[in-house]
Structure formats: C-alpha cells, structure tokens
Design brief:
The complex is a heterodimer of chains A (317) and B (370).
Chain A: H1 17-55, H2 57-62, E1 66-67, E2 72-73, H3 76-107, H4 110-125, H5 128-153, H6 173-197, H7 201-209, H8 214-243, H9 246-251, H10 270-277, H11 283-316
Antiparallel strand pairs in A: 1-2
Helix pairs in contact in A: 1-11, 3-6, 3-8, 4-6, 5-6, 6-8, 7-8, 8-11, 10-11
Chain B: H1 29-36, H2 39-61, H3 66-89, H4 91-125, H5 131-135, H6 151-182, H7 187-198, H8 202-217, H9 221-245, H10 249-257, H11 262-290, H12 294-298, H13 318-326, H14 331-369
Classes of the chains: A mainly alpha (317), B mainly alpha (370).
Chain lengths: 317, 370
C-alpha cells in the first residue's frame, strides 16, 4: 500500500456557513463607506450643476460675486479667504502643537505626561461652538490690542498693513485664525506626538551617551525621524481648519473679496458662506452653495488624503 | 561641540556596557550636572534683566499696551540666559536651556488657554443654570423674559445622537473587523475611503443630507441623526481598527487552533478582549457628535418647542439652540446660550471621563492578555 502521507495534496480552505455569513456581513458594512463617498460626490455634483451651468465653471472659480437674482456666482475670493484663515491658524498652531508634543514626549515628568495627553484629547473633543463663543466674547478685545500692536510695529510685512489707518480691527481673518489655531492644536499635537514617539530609543540614548544635550538629541534624532509625521499632521490640521464652520462664522464678518490685510475686519470662508446663506436661499442659490460646498469638499479631500499618505508612510517605516 | 550624527559609521566606538544595561535614569544625569546646578541663580538674573529692560523700554518709548512689554521681557530673558549660560558652560548647553524654556512656555500657553476658556464658560454659564433650565423649554418664554430652559434642545440632542450611534456602531465595528480581521481584497481602498470621509467638513455632511433627504421630506431630527452618523462613521471606524490591532495574535491563533471558525474567534475572543477599548472609541465618537452644530443647521433646523418625535418636523438641538441664542443681540439670550453651552460641555466632559475610565480598563485588560 502506498503511504498517503507522501502524496502532496491540495490545500483547500473550507469555510463554514457561519464564516461565509460573517465575511459577507463585514464586507457589506465596509462597503457602506464606499457608498457614502460615492453618494456624496454624485448628489453634490447633481445639485451643483444648475448653478455651475448658469455661472460657468471658470467664472465660478475666478470671480468674486454672489448675486443670486442675476445668477452670477463666484467663490474665488472666498476660497482665498478660507486658505488665509487656515494659513494663519497653521502658523500659530504648528509651533505650539509640536512643542507640546515634544514636551509631552521628552520633557514632562511621568505623571504630568498622562494628564497632558488627556488635556489634549479633551481639547479635541470640545465643541467648536465653544471655541467660537469664547473667541468672540473673551478673546476679541485682547486680540484687538495684539492686532493694533502688530500693525504698528510690524507693518513692514505687507500682511499686517491696513488699507486705511481707521480700519476696524475686529472680526478679522487674524481673529478667526487664532481661534481655529487653538482648535487644530490637538490634532497636530497628537499625530506628530505618535510619530515622534516611534523614534528609535537606542539612537536617542546614543545621542545622549555621546554627550549631547536633550535639545541636541531632539534636533539630530527625533526631528529628522518625525519630519514627515509633522508635515502630515500639519496637513491634517490644515484640512480641519479649511472646513471649520461655526467658530469662523461667529467671528468674522463675511466678505466676498479676498482680504489680504489679515488684521482688518472682513474675511472669507466657504463654510461660513454656506452656514449664513443656506437657510434663506432660493433654489438656484442653494445649488450655488452646494457647488461651493463641493469645491470645499474636494479641497479638504485632497489635503487629507495627502496627509494620511505621508503619516502612514512614516508609521510603517 | 559638533553636531551629533546618529548613523555615522565613523562615530567613535565607546567601550561601554550595552545600552540595555544602563538604567533609564542615566538619561537625565549629564544635563543636570552641567546646566542645572546654578540655573536658579542664572534664571533670577535673567528675569531681573528682562523686567528691568522691558520696563525701561516701556518708559523711554512710551508704550501703553501690555503686549509689547511682555514680548520684550520674554525676548530679553531668553537672550540674557543664553549669554550667561554660553559664558559658563558653552554654546550647546545654552541652546538646550533656551529651547527648554521655549518648550515649557508653549506647553503652559496651551494649558492656560484651555483653563481660561473653561473658566470663562463656567463664569458665564452658571448665571442662569438652575434645575428649571433643564426641565423647561422656550415655547412660552419671550426673548427677554426670565425662566425658560433647554429641555427641548437636550431631548432633541439625546435622541439624535442615540439614533446616530445605534445606526453607526455596528457598521463601524464591522468595517474595523473587515479591515483588521478579514483583511479582504478591498481593505486598501476601504481604508482610503474612510480617510476621505474623515476629512469631510461637517457642513458638507449637512449639505448632503439636505439634498438627499430634507428637500423631499422636510427638516427632522432623524435627518440630523443621518448627518451625525456620516461624521461619526470614520472616527469610530479608525479608532476601533486601532484597538483591534492591539489584540495579540496568539489569542487568535490559539482559538483557531482549537478548531473554532473565524467568526467565532472574532465574536468570542477578539471582540471581548477589545471590548473596553471599543467602548472608549464609541464614546469619544459620541462626544464629538454631541457638539456638532453646522450640519444641524441644514437638517434638524431647531425649534423652541419640545418635539419628542425625531421623525416629524424640526427638532431642537443643544448646540444649535446655543448657536441661535448667541447670535441674538440681547443679553438674556446670550446668558441662556452660555448656560446651554455649559450644559453641553458638561455632557461632553461626562462622556469623556467615562471614555477614559473604560480606556484604562481596556489597557489593563490587554496587559493581562499579553
């Protein structure tokens, strides 16, 4: 008799019925996200078409008008305004958030470490409405002073100039940017902290053993290792800042034209435009607002996917 | 001192015990030794110089704001401490100290902002916070009247968030199971899509539900739930996936080796092990959703009367009610908004603390499993 064991046999994976049901269920649930994103794109494009058709796609992105009765729409200024506010937010948030991340990882004593991690998580969970209210009522007056100081002492920088000396300094892009900065600190901090915590410990200790200072170790080991993580975290924060609605709407006074004098009253934000105009909009204006929303969605989508890609590349390295 | 190059093959090889043998505390010793011994005195000198210098500048140049003075004081402090330390210990320790000061101040700034915000909220919010604030609505209360409360909005928020959670949790957990347990062919595209959804601005989620649902059926609480569900889905999915990843593989292998089918392994071993962590993920998702305002503008719409049915007509919502009241130019409405915001933050804080508690349990449990 031939020994059966010597014959190679095909390896078949047998799945029980329970397993097939389980896999089917999980796959179906996973597909929901796919359906959602496709639905978002399909419905937004469908809804946006009447307004885009009337105003012209090129005009929609290159002009700054909002005249629903004439059917003329353009979000060029608002797009720039959105980016200005998010940019101001980034410039303030990134140094603070990365310092906070380094502080938690490298400087804070043991117990403070877990407390601070909780504080950052809590900051991320607070409603944006609260940031807006606080920014409007508590921060506004102090920021006006800061803005006056900036424009007096640093007017060499064009962004800090005023169009006329009497211009109002409240409800500015700067004001909104500061509040949004505080809102995006948690995301930048926690993502960059996670990446920097993965810097190889032996190299850090080696740097110290060679006589380096703590900053020497951070500069030569941790920051180079975490660089792309920080870039990715920054982009994630940028995406969050672009889409922020409530806090920005409470603070700025909406202007259609791009206002590059960031300390001055008036700034643009697509999300605010939607929040302010939508409740009382006519059908055509609604369509235009959906088109603006679509533009915002595509912008944040691009920024976010880029960010995730950069972060996950470092995480797997 | 030259810059350190960690990977340099030419770096001097030191005849020292292997890194593992060195107790971790050693990390701190050299720096303490060469910078911190006299640093209190140095800091005091620098602080004195900073205060004196900035006050002198203030007098000479006639500033009146606090900002310039503070900024100059900080700058002078950093420069003086740098110069003193460079003189005593050399360039590298001096830079190290200056950076330490900068990083501490950044961390303190972030904490101070949070404390300031919470304190401001509490002071503004307790003015009107009474039991009646939670048990009355605004249906018969005029804009300037005393009394009235947020009952309508609290009921609305709780219903909307509950419905959204009930709908989204199974989908999110199953998606996480698909991504981490089944690891099917579609894993990469699904993960990509979940990332895309996580960047969806909340107002766009509102727009989407508006065009799909509200245009035909009118505003309702359930439309709000749908928008919240879209926003919660990616958050909870990603967090759950992270949690499932921490379940050690030997547990799965042991179960499979005993002959349990894949679904039983997942249902009886993986999910129970990760249970506390999953609860944390869900609660944090809920805490995020409770405070969402923007999509509610276009879906639940808000109302001043108590509407307990999420299916019929506009329904109140706590953040939305706060938003509407804070935009009114009258003090009573604003006070009401602050009290509402305090209730809202209380809700978020409560959820957050529960999530932390479960999170700690999960960490302990996974520690045991390992």
């Amino acid at each position: 008799m031939v020994a059966v064991a010597d014959e190679p046999r095909p390896l078949v994976q047998v799945r029980t019925r329970g397993d097939r049901v389980f896999r089917g269920l999980a796959t179906a649930c996973a597909a929901v996200s796919l359906v959602l994103v496709s639905l978002t794109l399909i419905f937004l494009v469908k809804e946006a078409r009447p307004a885009l058709g009337k105003a012209g796609i090129v005009n929609f992105f290159t002009t700054s008008v909002w005249n629903p009765s004439a059917g003329r729409f353009g979000v060029a200024g608002l797009l720039q305004g959105t980016i200005i506010i998010a940019g101001v937010a980034l410039i303030i948030a990134v140094p603070l958030a990365v310092s906070m991340a380094l502080f938690i990882n490298e400087y804070a004593p043991g117990r403070l470490k877990s407390v601070l991690t909780s504080v950052i998580d809590l900051l991320a969970a607070l409603p944006s409405l609260l940031f807006g209210m606080w920014g409007f009522f508590a921060l506004k007056n102090r920021l006006t002073g800061a803005a006056a100081w900036l424009t007096q002492h640093l007017s060499a920088i064009p962004l800090f100039r005023l169009s006329n000396p009497k211009a109002s300094l409240v409800q500015s892009s700067f004001n909104a940017g500061v509040v949004v900065a505080i809102m995006i600190i948690p995301i930048i901090c926690s993502v960059s902290r996670d990446v920097m915590a993965q810097a190889p410990r032996e190299q850090c200790e080696g740097a110290l053993a060679l006589g380096g200072t703590r900053w020497g170790m951070i500069r030569e080991v941790i920051l180079p290792f975490g660089r792309s993580g920080i870039v990715g975290a920054t982009l994630l924060g940028f995406g969050r800042a672009l889409g922020e609605t409530i806090a920005v709407t409470l603070i700025i006074s909406l202007s259609l034209d791009a206002n590059w004098n960031i300390l001055e009253r008036g700034g643009g934000s697509i999300a605010s435009l939607i929040a302010i105009k939508f409740p009382e909009a006519s059908t055509l204006e609604r369509s235009a607002l959906v088109a603006a929303g679509l533009a915002l969605f595509l912008l944040t989508l691009l920024v976010n996917l880029l960010a995730r890609r950069i972060v996950s590349r470092t995480a797997t390295k | 001192m030259t810059a350190l190059v960690p990977d340099d093959a030419n770096a001097p090889t030191l005849e020292q015990p292997a890194v593992e043998d060195i107790p971790r505390q050693v990390e701190d010793r050299p720096r303490r030794g060469n910078t911190s011994s006299a640093s209190m005195g140095e800091a005091a000198v620098a602080a004195g110089a900073a205060v004196a210098g900035s006050l002198a500048l203030r007098l000479v140049l006639g500033w009146d704001g606090i900002m310039g003075t503070a900024l100059w004081a900080g700058l002078i402090f950093l420069v003086v401490i740098y110069l003193i330390l460079r003189d005593r210990h050399g360039r590298e320790p001096a830079v190290d100290r200056v950076v330490t000061v900068l990083i501490w101040s950044a961390a303190l700034t972030v904490i101070a902002v949070l404390v300031w915000m919470m304190a401001y909220l509490t002071v503004q919010g307790v003015k009107l916070l009474r039991v009646g604030f939670l048990t009355q609505d605004l249906s018969s209360t005029g804009a300037l009247d005393k009394g009235g409360g947020m009952k309508h909005a609290i009921i609305g928020t709780l219903e909307q968030v509950l419905i959204a959670t009930a709908a989204v949790v199974p989908i999110a957990v199953f998606t996480a199971v698909y991504l981490n347990e089944i690891r099917g062919r579609m894993s990469t595209p699904i993960r990509f899509i979940v990332d895309a959804l996580s960047g969806l601005p909340s107002i766009v989620a509102g727009l989407l539900i508006f065009t799909i649902w509200v245009v035909g059926r009118g505003f309702s609480g359930i439309a709000g739930s749908a928008a919240l569900a879209i926003l919660m889905l990616p958050t909870i999915t990603r967090a759950s996936e992270e949690i499932l990843r921490t379940v050690p593989d030997p547990l799965r292998e042991a179960s499979l080796a005993l002959g349990a089918p894949h679904w039983r392994t997942t249902a009886r071993i993986v999910l129970p092990t990760a249970q506390a962590g999953l609860v944390t993920a869900v609660i944090l998702g809920i805490a995020r959703a409770v405070g969402e305002t923007a999509p509610m503008l276009l879906t639940a719409f808000g109302a001043d009367t108590t509407n307990t049915s999420p299916l019929n007509g506009p329904q109140g919502d706590l953040p939305l009610a706060v938003w509407k009241l804070i935009r009114q130019p009258n003090q009573t409405a604003n006070d009401r908004a602050w009290a509402g915001a305090l209730v809202l933050v209380g809700l978020v804080l409560g959820l957050f603390i529960i999530a932390r508690w479960f999170g700690n349990r999960s960490a302990r449990r996974l520690g045991r499993a390992r």
